[in-house]
């Protein structure tokens, strides 16, 4: 997590001159959701003053990570009474589009009221989930809302959430999966194109751990670490 103060988003040169920074980082913990980059030729040491800064931009508060795909960087933060999704040129920081909407969440312990979950770029769509359960699918090129859902209204949790919703979404096939934490809807799979519910399972409360998908004994398996414990599901079980 980042500090709950305002971000200073900085892009630095971390590779030798003449090598293009081509790899995308489209979701929480990178392309394979494991914190590893496949880039080659990275610097093994930095100058004493740090890598040269290409550009920097002050944005609002939050715990959300930056994601990058196809030359577009997407940031997600809180500004006043709004959560903001903003797309920037990864090359020079030029603003491309911005989508903002009202957010009433307030952290009861004063640790910051910004979004907790990191956006996900899948193809030409950006998926974000805010601290008070606002789930959005936005067009990557324009910021147009493709669909949206209020998860806390549709799947109310049995108990109030102290720290908001903080699990980062994951896509597997045509499904967007989340540990929602609602009654009889602990984990929910949505059609990524329409937002329509495809299946739901468990009554596990939402956690601040983000799911991952892997292959176990030849079968695709999505792994969640909910408030109740480890849950392994076939993401296509109802499709």
Secondary structure blueprint with pairings:
Blueprint: E1 6-12, E2 53-61, E3 67-69, E4 72-79, E5 82-89, E6 95-102, E7 120-122, E8 125-129, E9 134-139, E10 145-150, H1 151-154, E11 170-172, E12 175-182, E13 185-191, E14 197-201, E15 212-216, E16 219-225, E17 230-233
Antiparallel strand pairs: 1-2, 3-4, 4-5, 5-6, 7-8, 8-9, 9-10, 11-12, 12-13, 13-14, 15-16, 16-17
Report on this structure:
It is a single chain. With 239 residues, the chain is mainly β. It is 2% helix and 43% strand. It has a single domain (6-233), classed as Beta Barrel (Lipocalin). The protein is built from 1 helix and 17 strands. The longest helix is centred in the middle third of the chain and has 4 residues, at 151-154. It starts with 5 loop residues before the first strand and ends in a 6-residue tail after the last strand.
The coarse silhouette is globular
Question: Mean pLDDT, rounded to whole units?
Answer: 90
Could you state the order of secondary-structure elements as H and E?
EEEEEEEEEEHEEEEEEE
State the CATH topology: Lipocalin
> Cα-atom Rg, whole angstroms?
18 Å
Question: Helical residue percent?
Answer: under 10%
Spatial sequence of strands, sheet with the most strands:
3-4-5-6
- Extract low-pLDDT stretches: 1-5, 13-21
What is the CATH class name? Mainly Beta
Helix/strand-derived class? mainly beta
Strand content: 35-45%
Individual helix count? 1
Strand count, sense and barrel status of the largest sheet are: 4 strands, antiparallel
Distance linking N and C termini: 34 Å
| Number of E strands | 17
CATH architecture type: Beta Barrel
Total discrete domains: 1
């Amino acid at each position: 997590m980042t500090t709950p103060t305002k971000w200073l988003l900085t892009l630095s040169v971390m590779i030798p001159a003449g090598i293009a920074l081509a790899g995308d980082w489209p979701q929480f913990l990178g392309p394979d959701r494991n914190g590893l980059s496949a880039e080659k030729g990275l610097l093994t040491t930095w100058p004493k003053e740090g890598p040269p800064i290409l550009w920097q931009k002050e944005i609002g508060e939050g715990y959300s990570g930056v994601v990058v795909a196809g030359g577009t960087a997407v940031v997600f933060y809180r500004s006043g009474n709004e959560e903001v999704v903003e797309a920037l040129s990864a090359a020079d920081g030029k603003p491309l589009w911005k989508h903002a909407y009202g957010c009433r969440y307030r952290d009861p312990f004063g640790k910051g009221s910004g979004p907790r979950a990191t956006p996900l770029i899948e193809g030409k769509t950006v998926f974000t989930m805010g601290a008070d359960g606002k789930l959005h699918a936005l067009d990557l090129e324009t910021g147009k809302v493709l669909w949206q859902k209020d998860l806390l209204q549709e799947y109310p949790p049995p108990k109030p959430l102290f720290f908001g919703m903080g699990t980062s979404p994951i896509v597997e096939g045509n499904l967007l999966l989340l540990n929602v934490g609602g009654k009889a809807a602990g984990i929910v799979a949505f059609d990524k194109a329409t937002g329509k519910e495809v299946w739901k399972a468990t009554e596990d409360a939402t956690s601040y751990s983000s799911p991952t998908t892997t292959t176990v004994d030849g079968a695709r398996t999505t792994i969640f670490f909910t408030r109740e414990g480890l849950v392994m599901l076939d993401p296509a079980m109802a499709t």
